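Design a sequence for this backbone.
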């Protein structure tokens, strides 16, 4: 059974300002006044054909669609070549670009790796790295690259077992058992076919558990650094330019995969390096591993995210970013540098979450989502068998959101309570310290007590000013979200302001420093009279009640999402791709400019623009430090063609995890490396809107120009040329 899902949307793409206005109106207009918002009749808004996106899987390749849309033969061999040419590396994507195991990816994907291979006296992040010979390529400890060897749909086997089970607990147990059995069978099947160091199997639940696929990977563990641009080139524009376009970042690096014999690995397939690049209107295919998205959620779930969870996250990120910024302004250079790095991580999440919230508050987007859900409901109701099994799935999901809303204040108050990166070290010591005291009182085994003590000892001190600010912010979270009269707030603050409560605890509790904590535990003077322990005991009942509800609702919601995935697949089949799961996908699009800020964004930028940004921002001085250039770049290097395309955009459907993904032509020639999205692309968590959303890529022509004219990497250029001439086989 297959149903027609799509009907052409009757509204034309509109400028961002209109969308923002409509989002604001949606918050203040009563329900009966929302039929007309920003000149759009919401009752006429319809779901678009690709609202659920184009993150196609290799087990369900869109062969006919690619062939008919782009005019080439997208057959099984084409998809196999594409799949075997691409790699998944920690947190990112990459691709083979020569017959000798050379791999291309983004610089920001291997930024930490560059630090790890830096030797005494070197500053590779600042100066870049180029291995002039094969022997100079540096092995990366603890690193790996995975190649997708095979994919098998195992849904029938999984559901045959779980559908016969009774309770949800039994279903979960049976599911685990059958997945383990399938994994072992696949390891035996493919174990003799690997060319890497090992084979491993990952069971991926697609459609939120509505389908299951087994991904069999070749894992290579001998990966070496070959070329890395300078950090300031790879991250040119820094945080201000993040999620924007036009961009001018030379975000690239080369690795090499080595085989078990210690020699460069020779893949059967790799991507040819394009000499001509792309022009506006050209088709491109981005292959990689997009991260988790929320496109298949129900309207009730999206409304909960809009009203509760995403605003809470945005508020938390914003407050912690402000704290770090305030401290950084007066911090010494070493601490300021550390805070800058932490601020970027927060800012990246803050921009992304803010874009998600804007999308959820856009009434046109929500109307499109609602129309798609209405059509699916109608298809389920029209089929007696589907209606009997899944007719109430949307209503039951909505009931769970109602219950979640009852605990919205607690969810916001306790958000990130134990986040190791941005919670107070004091707070984490107190929580574990209470557990240690109770373990001692209860006479638990000595090794369990010692394990807790070791965990506490690993919590190092943070800057005292930062510690005070983070603890104050935590108390402000409680006060703001739960209310000043809440028993938790009264017990936690004890009549003090958040600042006073933080000062009191840091001056009176042994958990203020790692040394005083260790000494109290060793001397046996730590007891439950410590003010931090008193506070932790006051918080615990409410926190446990919240966790009990959350831990119950989570599995219930997951089971219903799985049902929704199953019925969606039964109705639409492969027409609707699954949400992103950081598993291998291929997406299609075209190189295309777009309207923004009252003008037109060009399809690509050039080195001319890079130097314009550098000079216009004060040559990297003061507030323009994000647009600084490395020393050898400040004056255009001799012979560098400034008209060379540097970055370009396309309508391809990418998301977090697609960093480093190759952008290829129908001939599987590499033309770019995906490294970002524009601000309009942040709505892709929920919906794919190609009218304005774009993915941003480093143009291979710029990489080639830099290798030749700046980095002196002739050896790599020759290898790329040889790979390009042989890749068509």
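Sequence:
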């Amino acid at each position: 059974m297959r149903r027609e899902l799509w009907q052409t949307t009757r509204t034309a793409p509109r400028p961002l300002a209109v969308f923002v206005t409509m989002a604001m109106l949606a918050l203040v207009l009563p329900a009966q006044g929302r039929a007309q918002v920003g000149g759009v009749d919401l009752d006429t808004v319809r779901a678009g054909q690709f609202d659920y996106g184009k993150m196609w899987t290799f087990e369900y390749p869109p062969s006919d669609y690619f062939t008919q849309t782009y005019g080439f033969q997208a057959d099984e061999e084409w998809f196999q070549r594409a799949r075997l040419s691409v790699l998944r590396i920690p947190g990112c994507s990459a691709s083979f670009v020569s017959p000798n195991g050379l791999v291309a990816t983004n610089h920001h994907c291997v930024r930490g790796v560059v630090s790890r291979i830096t030797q005494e006296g070197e500053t590779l992040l600042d100066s870049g790295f180029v291995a002039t010979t094969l022997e100079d390529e540096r092995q990366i400890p603890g690193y790996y690259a995975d190649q997708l060897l095979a994919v098998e749909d195992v849904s029938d086997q999984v559901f045959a077992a779980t559908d016969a089970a009774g309770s949800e607990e039994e279903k979960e147990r049976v599911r685990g058992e059958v997945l383990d059995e399938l994994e072992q069978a696949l390891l035996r099947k493919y174990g003799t076919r690997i060319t890497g160091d090992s084979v491993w199997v990952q069971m991926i639940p697609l459609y939120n558990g509505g389908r299951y696929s087994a991904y069999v990977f070749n894992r290579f563990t001998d990966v070496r650094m070959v070329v890395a641009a300078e950090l300031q080139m790879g991250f040119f524009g820094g945080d201000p330019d993040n999620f924007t376009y036009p961009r001018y970042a030379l975000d690239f690096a080369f690795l090499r995969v080595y085989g078990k014999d210690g020699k460069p690995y020779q893949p059967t397939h790799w991507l040819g390096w394009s000499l001509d690049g792309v022009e506006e209107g050209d088709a491109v295919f981005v292959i990689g591993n997009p991260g988790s998205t929320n496109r298949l959620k129900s309207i009730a779930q999206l409304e909960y995210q809009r009203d509760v969870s995403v605003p809470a996250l945005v508020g938390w990120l914003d407050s912690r970013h402000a704290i770090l910024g305030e401290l950084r302004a007066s911090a010494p250079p070493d601490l300021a540098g550390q805070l800058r790095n932490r601020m970027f991580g927060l800012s990246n999440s803050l921009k992304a979450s803010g874009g998600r919230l804007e999308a959820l508050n856009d009434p046109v987007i929500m109307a499109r989502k609602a129309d798609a859900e209405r059509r699916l409901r109608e298809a389920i109701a029209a089929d007696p068998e589907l209606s009997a099994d899944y007719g109430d799935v949307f209503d039951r999901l909505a009931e769970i959101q109602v219950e979640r809303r009852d605990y919205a204040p607690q969810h916001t108050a306790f958000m990130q309570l134990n986040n190791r990166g941005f919670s107070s070290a004091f707070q984490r010591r107190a929580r574990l310290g209470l557990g240690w005291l109770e373990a001692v009182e209860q006479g638990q085994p000595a090794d369990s007590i010692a394990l807790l003590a070791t965990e506490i000892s690993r919590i190092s001190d943070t800057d005292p000013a930062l510690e005070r600010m983070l603890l104050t912010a935590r108390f402000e979270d409680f006060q703001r979200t739960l209310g000043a009269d809440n028993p938790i707030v009264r017990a936690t603050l004890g009549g003090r302001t958040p600042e006073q409560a933080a000062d009191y605890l840091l001056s009176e509790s042994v958990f203020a420093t790692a040394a005083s904590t260790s000494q109290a535990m060793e001397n046996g003077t730590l007891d439950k009279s410590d003010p931090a322990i008193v506070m932790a005991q006051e918080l615990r009942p409410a926190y446990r009640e919240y966790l009990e509800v959350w831990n119950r609702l989570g599995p219930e919601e997951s089971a219903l999402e799985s049902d929704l995935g199953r019925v969606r697949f039964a109705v639409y089949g492969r027409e609707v791709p699954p949400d992103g799961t950081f598993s291998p996908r291929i997406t299609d699009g075209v190189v295309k400019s777009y309207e923004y800020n009252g003008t037109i964004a060009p399809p690509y930028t050039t080195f001319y623009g890079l130097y314009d940004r550098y000079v216009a921002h004060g040559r990297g001085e003061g507030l323009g430090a994000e647009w600084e250039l490395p020393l050898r770049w400040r004056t255009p290097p001799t012979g560098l063609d400034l008209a060379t395309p540097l970055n370009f955009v396309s309508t391809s459907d990418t998301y977090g995890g697609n960093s480093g993904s190759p952008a290829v032509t129908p001939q599987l020639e590499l033309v770019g490396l995906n490294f970002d999205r524009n601000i309009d692309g942040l709505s892709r968590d929920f919906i794919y809107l190609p009218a304005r959303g774009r993915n941003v890529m480093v143009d291979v022509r710029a990489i080639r120009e830099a290798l030749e004219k700046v980095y002196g990497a002739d050896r790599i250029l020759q290898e790329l040329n040889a790979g390009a001439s042989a890749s068509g086989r």
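The chain has a mean pLDDT of 91.
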